[in-house]
């Protein structure tokens, strides 16, 4: 029979293994005990209970992540998913270089309630603002996250959701909507750094506003929002920015406004680019939706991270 000290050692060993292995399966807990596993290195999938349903999200944690790491929340587009966004926009590779965490939440029914768009989440007024806040809280409970360096980006419907998050919460130090527009009330927004990226030939979310072309899927909502430059102008007002300056390099025009307390509002327009994530991968879902090949004039992911890295809450 094993001695008391040996049995105690076995218990400690088992507890340690639970912590190490549990991170592959756990969700929404604090760090440091078998019941509250830390986020493992690499890719992991998690779930939390929210508003009476089980909601899911993926997390990527690079090797050698330091304490108080930044966190980027990447919101997929309509008909996409967290896994699709992770595969299409190369945020994992960017996190390896920049040493930050990435979260990929899944919209219910592959969509987000960004306001007047999109699909069932909008029609049922699903609390996606609360869900995304809960995802951030769950990750903070499992990793050392710098609360002053939490960011949100998104594609299309996910971009609209990122804008809604900035309009209704102060969770993010900066946001970066790609191929999206504002489809919710933003009259009570707090100052936030904003980078918008949009193709001038976007037919689904028109650069100049108005109803967009429906995608090649039955029941696809037609987005009807304001012109993209008008959204940027609204954020310059919210942030009390100076007049913007503009530069053009090839197909890319960048309009930048400096704002108090180090904030920035920026619009990057990609000439002749359609509804896409510039520098991303088209993939089978985007092919099925009839979307064009992404422009190579800009690496949106790297551009967004460089913008985020310059802004703290």
From TrEMBL:
Keywords on record = Hydrolase, Signal
Return the protein name.
Polyhydroxybutyrate depolymerase
UniProt key word Translocase: no
According to the record, the segments passing through the membrane are: none
Which positions are tagged coiled coil? none
Q: Keyword Signal, does the record have it?
A: yes
Tell me any Pfam family this protein matches: Esterase_PHB
Q: In which organism is this protein found?
A: Mycobacterium paragordonae
InterPro entries tied to this protein? AB_hydrolase_fold, Esterase_phb, Plant_Biomass_Hydrol_Est
- Supply the PANTHER family for this chain: BLL1128 PROTEIN, UNNAMED PRODUCT-RELATED
User: Highest taxon of the source?
Assistant: Bacteria
């Amino acid at each position: 029979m094993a001695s008391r000290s040996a049995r105690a050692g076995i218990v400690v060993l088992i507890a340690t293994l639970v912590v190490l292995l549990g991170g592959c399966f756990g969700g929404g807990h604090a760090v440091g005990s078998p019941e509250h596993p830390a986020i493992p290195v690499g890719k992991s999938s998690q779930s939390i209970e929210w508003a009476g349903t089980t909601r899911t999200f993926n997390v990527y944690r690079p090797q050698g992540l330091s304490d108080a790491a930044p966190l980027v929340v990447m919101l997929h587009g309509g008909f996409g998913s967290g896994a699709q966004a992770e595969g299409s926009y190369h945020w994992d590779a960017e996190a390896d270089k920049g040493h930050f965490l990435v979260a990929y939440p899944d919209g219910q029914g592959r969509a987000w309630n960004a306001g007047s768009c999109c699909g069932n989440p909008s029609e049922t007024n699903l609390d996606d603002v609360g869900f995304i806040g809960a995802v951030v809280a769950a990750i903070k409970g499992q990793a050392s996250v710098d609360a002053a360096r939490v960011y949100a980006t998104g594609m299309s419907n996910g971009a609209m959701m990122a804008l809604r998050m900035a309009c209704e919460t102060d969770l993010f130090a900066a946001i970066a909507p790609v191929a999206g527009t504002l489809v919710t009330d933003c009259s009570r927004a707090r100052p936030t750094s904003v980078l918008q990226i949009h193709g001038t030939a976007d037919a689904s979310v028109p650069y100049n506003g108005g109803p967009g072309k429906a995608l090649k899927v039955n029941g696809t909502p037609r987005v009807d929002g304001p012109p993209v430059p008008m959204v940027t102008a609204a954020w310059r007002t919210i942030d009390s920015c100076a007049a913007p300056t503009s530069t053009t390099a090839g197909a890319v025009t960048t309009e930048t406004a400096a704002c108090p307390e180090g904030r920035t509002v920026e619009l990057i327009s990609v000439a002749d680019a359609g509804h896409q994530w510039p520098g991303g991968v088209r993939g089978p879902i985007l092919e099925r939706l009839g979307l064009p090949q992404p422009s190579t004039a800009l690496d949106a992911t790297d551009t967004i991270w460089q913008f985020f890295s310059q802004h703290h809450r």
